[in-house]
Every structure is written in structure tokens, then in C-alpha cells.
Amino acid sequence: MSELNKIALKILSNGKGILAADESTGTMTKRLESVNVTSSPENRLLFRETLFSSESMKNCIGGVILYDETIKQTANSKQKIPELISSFNAVPGIKVDSGAKVLAGSPEEKITEGLDGLRERLKDYYKRGARFTKWRGVYNISDKYPSKLSIHSNAHALARYSSIVQECKMVPIVEPEVLMDGNHSAEDCFDKTSAVLKKCFEELALHNIDLAGIILKPNMILAGASSDKKLSNEDVAKLTLKCLKENVPSEVPGIAFLSGGQSELEATENLNLINKYNDTNFIMTYSYGRALQQSALKFWSKDIKNIQGTQKIFNHRANMCTLASQGKWSAELEKK
Question: Which of 105, 163, 191, 236 has a CA 20 to 30 Å removed from the CA of 185?
């Protein structure tokens, strides 16, 4: 077992998942302002530290993806943020891309940038305690998209990123996200996600990536947000599993789904059913941002000093997601 594989399994095993707390300052500002909280470095830290020091960090959260601002902050407990996360036996991680920019040659689509200077940044993040990283490629769905150019360009960037990350002794999260925006059918989502995953793994093979030392962070197979052809949760689970079985090599230790605009309950229920039907050797768990944080954020915004109350809400959500990652969740448990 390689060192990278050990890290990946530590993050994903025993029903644990990933807390995606890597919102950029701009995104975090929008989230806080949506609940009428001023977005200052102190308030951003206070909310995140509230989550990072909650009880569920011990049993539910195997890894936390941080943003550049956060990994350099010191908690009110005087611990550095990566030390605080490590104290719960969770693994600190870091978002390392610099965002999705307009793709030259296909201006309706995006290419993720951030390879310049990546090796140097990774060395700094490693010293600060990070042991895994995240890079997100985004793909639109429509009649014309994603184009071959988008599929090839983003796969190549994800592979180059993964190669540099593994060289720096960290586990890359490979996140090719086929977006929910649009009125496409689930069948369209299945076909386009399959094409995206196939090309990603071709590029990862070309770049000699140790697949046992990565975590895949894909979208579930869903109809578009504005489609009137919504699938049942059972069909979402079955189509998602079929797509992954057909396109993900067996060496990959685990798959941590993004929530991608689903509500907290949808993301939990779909993950639970995926695990009920899971007949693969892949660990299937979560890497959620909003679907772990939204209720806690709304509660916290009413009184940002009510740390325990906020943690109680977060602990419940994390516990539900961890049950779902073991196929043990039920709607009745939400009421307890």
C-alpha cells in the first residue's frame, strides 16, 4: 500500500466524507451576505472554525478542503487551522486551482487555470500541513457542449495537476464536474459524464498517475435543474453507478460525490441509495460544501456567537451524510 493510498483511505474509510470548505473569498462573501452577515476575514474564520471544532469532525469528517486564506489563519484556540483539523484525526486539504476562465476557441465554455507556480505553492501548503488537494474542471451540457475541446483541455489540465501533486507527496482530488444547469435529460448527463470521465482517465494514464493515490469527485447523474424530466432517486443512483462502473478504473480507491446544487436532503438520499445498490469495490462517500453547511450557516447567521447551537445543526447533517455513505440513512432519522 503506497503512502498516497493510505492518505486517501484515511480520508474516505469508515463512512467518513469530506467537508468542502474551500469557497473563494468572493463565493464566501456571497454566502454570508445572503444571510446578512458581513464578510470579514474574522467572520469567515469564525464560521469555519465553528464547523472545524465540532464533535462530528471525529466520526464523520475524514478530510477538509481549505482555501488559501483559511489554511494560513490561526483559530481563536491559538491553533493553526490545519493543526485544529488534524487534532480530530481528519486530514487538511487545499484547493489549488485559480478558477474556471473562458476557454479560448470556445468562449461559452470554461477551462480551469492555476498550473503556473503550482509546484512551489504545493511545497508551501505541504509545510502548512495539507496532505491532499483539489482541482475542479467544469463542463456545460447542451446540444453542442461539452465540446471535444473542453473535454480534452480540462482532462489534460486535471492530469498535469495530478502529476505535480503526487510528485509533492499529496493526494489529488480529481473533480470533473458536469454542471446541473440547463434542461438536459438524465440520459444526456449520463452520456456526457461518461465522455468526460473516459477522457480524464486516458490523460491520467498518459501522465503515469498512481490511481490508487487519487480521489475522484464526480457529479451524480441528474436531469438538468430546469428539466421537466426528473428521475426518481432510485434511477439517479442506478444510472450514477452504471456510469462509474463503465468509466472508472478499479484501482481508484474511492469516489466522493459533489452535491452540485442538490438540496441537503436530496444529496443525502441519493448518496444513501447509491450505497444501497453499490456492488463495486469503490468507497462511495461525500465531498459536500453547501449540502453540509447550509442549515448550519442559516442558524449561525441569527447569532454568530451561538457556537454550540450551530455545531449541533452541523453535527446532525454530517451524521446523516455519514449514514448515507454506508447505506444506513432513512428519512425518519432526519426528525430525531
Answer: 105
Q: What is the pLDDT of residues 281-326, one digit of tens each?
A: 999 999 999 999 999 999 999 999 999 999 999 999 999 999 999 9
Tell me: the pLDDT tens digits for 134-190?
999 999 999 899 999 999 999 999 999 999 999 999 999 999 999 999 889 999 999
- Name the domain count of the chain: 1
Q: Tell me the residue range of the domain where 51 lies.
A: 3-335
Question: Could you confirm whether 217 is annotated as catalytic?
Answer: yes
CATH code where residue 9 lies: 3.20.20.70
- Total Cβ atoms within 10 A of residue 233: 14
Residue 82 C-alpha cell reads as: 490545519
- The pTM assigned to this predicted structure is 0.97
Relative to beta strand 283-288, strand 17-20 is parallel
Catalytic residue among 10, 16, 192, 217: 217
